[in-house]
Write a structure and sequence with these properties.
By secondary structure, this protein is mostly helical. The chain has one domain (4-136). The protein is built from four helices and no strands. The chain has helices at residues 4-25, 32-55, 63-90, 107-136.
Length: 140
Amino acid sequence: MYSQKDWLLIFGAGLFLLGLVTGFVGPLLANPRMGLSSHLEGLMNGTFLIAVGAIWDRVHLSPALKKTAFVLFLFGTTANWATVFLAAAWGASALMPISGAGHTGTQFQENTVATLLMGLSIAMLMATALMLAGLLRKRA
């Protein structure tokens, strides 16, 4: 059975791989510039999850809080790559005016991207705050 640490490392490596593959298909998307952003999100979030997995044993939280941080990290990092990929494929630019310049998706697509971006941002802030609190806490 895999531990949370194992899953963080596995998801990190998988997300890094998705980022690499996205680099190949990015130029074929409706917004290639956003495709590049998705490529970089996969690489950076994959690397971040591997780093989190490497220090996960040093995060001292209650089992419930640690599981919450774990789930939020998996959701936030994966949703970050997937949301930017969707924006690139759809040509949506919600909340991303620089890489989305000159592109607009349907109202549904724009709302979907905006909602996902807000949700994953909150998830990543919460997960990172929990991790920091767990790193600062001494083992009981």
